[in-house]
Amino acid sequence: MKKIIYKLLLTFFCFYSFHNYIICQNNYDLEGLELVSSKSLIETVKYLSSDKLEGRLAGSEGYKKAAIYMAEKLKSYNIKPFADSTYFQHLTMEYNWIFAPCKLNLIEEEKIVKEYKLGEDFICRGFTGSGHCITSVVFCGYGISKPEIGYDDYNGINVKGKIVMVFKPIPIWKINNLDWGEISIRKKVEYAFQHGAVGILFVSLPNDKKPQKTIGSVMHGVGIQNENFPQMHISIPLAEEVFDKTNKTIKIIQNIIDSTKTPYSFSLNRIIEMEVNAEYKKEQPTMNIVGIIDGSDPKFKDEYLVIGAHLDHVGKQADEILFPGANDNASGSAAVIEIAKVYAKNKIKPKRSIIFVLFTGEEQGMAGSEYFVNQLPVPVEKVIAMFNLDCIGYGDSIQIGNGKSSPKLWYLAKQTDSLYTKMMVEPTWSGGGADATAFYKKSIPCIYFVSTNGYEHLHYMTDTYGTLNTVLFEKITRLAYLISLQVANGYYNKEIVLQ
User: Fold this and answer.
1) Cα–Cα distance, 408 to 445 (Å, whole number)
2) Is CB count within 10 Å lower at the N or C end of the chain?
């Protein structure tokens, strides 16, 4: 009953807030909406996803070019730098760059019988080590070695000097009613190395309804980098070819392991040549990009709205394949800059101060947003709200996340959408999500703008600007602007973040 009353009160608040906003709209001049244009958004995305930026891997020269480009845009709108005189908030993070040659070949009688193609048959893991080996392949189930809980894919199988093939995810089932704990890609590499393997091939689960294709990814997990251990994500058809001399199929093997909850590891009777070359740096300089518009009202100017998106993506590999990252997340970054432009050109200035930030390192685990929140140059309690925009350019409707943790903001978004955009769906979540997570942990109310059905090209080479839904892209950006306008002008007060 209390929840129903709370929701009714929130709904009333949002109707009242937006009613006041509509009454005042002539003062705030909604022609600002017309400044948000799909042409301008796509122009920014087109540059950010271009070959010259090399996939914007955090710490790379391509990412640095993207950061300079976006900082110059803020400067052109006369938006002040907030981090330092160059708009940059500097930090360091892990970095790995994959260069040529990079190959995976099937060997018979000491001859190459099939050359697999990078980008089609396999992709290197973002934090692969370097190495060159020609050796036999052993299948080791989920690649987990936890004898302390009664499960070990390496028990009774010799992998010394060999390449192991393992399922990329962890099981959805438990062993002896115990959780698996934190088992990252890096941890699976560690298990393989400790048992004497010289390389690892990850494969998606073939029995999933939609098995994950080979993707570019730098999400690796914490721990020490193994700089001399090559790691690849291979396609299911490639895995089936390597299985074809065993009288078994990878689908059947997954069924056996999942149904019995018992390891099933064996030699695949195949020889593979595997080569990767990579340059690893434990601490590579990178940066967030931060600008600010000062509030115009003495009562509100020391309160802050943060509008942010991550600028980084997952780079390129061996000068052969590029992950453009148009939707993920050149789209969100372009929207942040577009909203900044609208505020800069509007006649009426926001009462509250607005911080515009483009984060680095989201793809490696939200490093840039964590750093930003932990180094806030303003009191955390003065941050009224945070808007996160991530993957907003491809799809068919609008979803606003984190509504269960920040319901007042979510209802404000819903009411705004009902009067203007009319594209928002009901489902939401709690706990932040992506770069909003760091703000949620600090009890800062946040909402997460994303498109629905928008992940078809996520982390694939096909995530290009030509795939974007320009109508949706423009409308999400306009919706974010309209909601921010209400927050920035005092029609929203900070709420308690629900856990």
Assistant:
1) 9
2) N
Q: Write the DSSP symbol of residue 399.
A: E
Query: Can you tell me whether residue 364 is helix, strand or coil?
Result: helix
Single-letter amino acid code for the residue at 214: T
Domains of the chain: 2-93+282-488 (3.40.630.10), 96-279 (3.50.30.30)
d(CA 410, CA 412): 5
E strands, 302-371, are 304-310, 316-317, 321-322, 353-359
Where would I find the H helices in 160-305?
Answer: 185-194, 236-243, 250-260
Distance CA 437, CA 439 (A): 5
How many C-beta atoms surround the C-beta of residue 349 within 10 A? 16
Q: Give the three-state DSSP class for 457.
A: coil
Answer yes or no: are the C-beta atoms of 106 and 241 closer than 8 Å.
yes
- Crossing angle of helices 38-48 and 470-488, in 10° steps, is 100
**DSSP track, 95-128:** EEEEEEEEEEEEEETTEEEEEE-BTTTEEE-TT-
Q: Give the closest residue to 255 by CA, choosing from 176, 171, 179.
A: 171
Structure tokens at 424: 């928002």
Query: pLDDT in tens for each of the 499 residues of the chain?
Result: 444 444 444 444 444 554 444 434 433 446 678 889 999 999 999 999 999 999 999 999 999 999 999 999 999 999 999 967 889 999 999 999 999 999 999 999 999 999 999 999 999 999 999 999 999 999 999 999 999 999 999 999 999 999 999 999 999 999 988 999 999 999 999 999 999 999 999 999 999 999 999 999 999 999 999 999 999 999 999 999 999 999 999 999 999 999 999 999 999 999 999 999 999 999 999 999 999 999 999 999 999 999 999 999 999 999 999 999 999 999 999 999 999 999 999 887 899 999 999 999 999 999 999 999 999 989 999 999 999 999 999 999 999 999 999 999 999 999 999 999 999 999 999 999 999 999 999 999 999 999 999 999 999 999 999 999 999 999 999 999 999 999 999 999 999 888 7
Beta strand segments in 325-445, E: 353-359, 383-389, 397-401
Sign of CA dihedral 278, 282, 286, 288: positive
User: 101 preceded by cis ω (within 30°)?
Assistant: yes
